[in-house]
Amino acid sequence: MDDMDTSRNSDLIATHYLVRSLRSRCSLKAVRAPHRVEHHPFLGRAVRQGVIFVLACFSFHALAGSSTGEDKAQLCLLCHKPAADKRFVALLEQQPADYLVAATMAYKTGQRKETSMNVNAANLSEADIRDISGYFASKEFPKRAQNLEPAKIAAGEKVVTDMNCASCHGPTFRGAGMTPRLAGQNVMYLVGQMEAFRDGRRNLPPGMAVLKDRTDIENGASYLASFP
Ligand code: HEC
Ligand code: HEC
């Protein structure tokens, strides 16, 4: 099924949004500066992915002195768009604040590896991270339809119940404290993270069981994504 395509296209999606919206948000200098590093061996790649644009804008943003969590979260929303299916990008609304702080810190320190997020988090202060996390934690969870197959949801219910995932993530998978919300999360993000846990690309929390089989992972993700 197309929705379960494993190709990582989040950077392409991200670049699309960034290029479209940054002109109105950033100083000319901030937008121009990255072109000079386009042929740099490391930065060149990042520029093509659009992430340096964000970094440049953060500096500008910080200097401009705007200070609410909502202000600071605007750049995050370029990729973490609530309405659309962003596949490998997570929804952050209604995620427990403590978890969001920890997850963002893990990107900042490089403990959790993902190019866009490592670059985006690098420039945030701890106060920024707390403000942004508080903002997303308090925002209403977006209502949008994901294209989920009923047969996968039903098969996923059995796998997730057998593995007792609710014992940590909560009876309706809304998470709490340091345990993330899974309910209604983008299905492809859930698939990607379960594979990352399975393959050792993301550190497994103590006591968390992993689904090994790709079909179980897709079914489990469909079930979890089906929760409101
Ligand atoms: C260029 C696109 C992009 C931008 C801008 C961006 N993110 Fe992300 N973010 C991603 C992607 C892609 C992932 C999934 C990464 C992975 O697979 O680990 C992610 C994941 C996350 C996660 C993990 C969510 C979870 O459920 O574990 C957090 C937290 C996060 N981002 C916070 C932020 C914050 C805060 C900002 C703004 C300062 C931000 N992001 C800006 C692309 C982006
Ligand atoms: C012992 C408690 C525990 C159990 C049981 C558990 N989890 Fe988790 N899970 C966690 C914690 C804690 C995290 C956050 C890890 C981190 O901070 O990186 C997590 C993270 C996740 C994530 C990443 C979410 C995100 O937003 O990035 C997924 C997906 C997930 N778990 C799925 C499952 C599934 C499916 C099961 C059952 C097979 C399960 N978990 C069982 C504690 C648990």
Concise description?
With 228 residues, the chain is mainly α. It is built from 13 helices and no strands.
Q: Ligands in the structure?
A: heme C
Order of helices and strands: HHHHHHHHHHHHH
Structurally, the number of domains stands at 2
Strand elements, count: 0
Give the overall pLDDT as a whole number: 79
Topology (SSEs and partners):
Layout: H1 10-22, H2 28-32, H3 43-49, H4 51-64, H5 69-73, H6 76-79, H7 97-108, H8 115-122, H9 126-138, H10 150-162, H11 166-169, H12 187-198, H13 214-225
Helix pairs in contact: 1-4, 4-8, 7-8, 7-9, 10-13, 12-13
The structure holds heme C (2 copies).
Structural account:
The structure is a single chain. The chain contains 13 helices and no strands. The protein is mostly helical. The protein folds into two domains: 134 residues, no CATH class; 76 residues, Cytochrome c-like domain (Cytochrome Bc1 Complex, Chain D, domain 2). The longest helix has 14 residues. The two termini are 23 Å apart. One heme C (HEC) binds next to helix 1, helix 4, helix 6, helix 7 and helix 8.
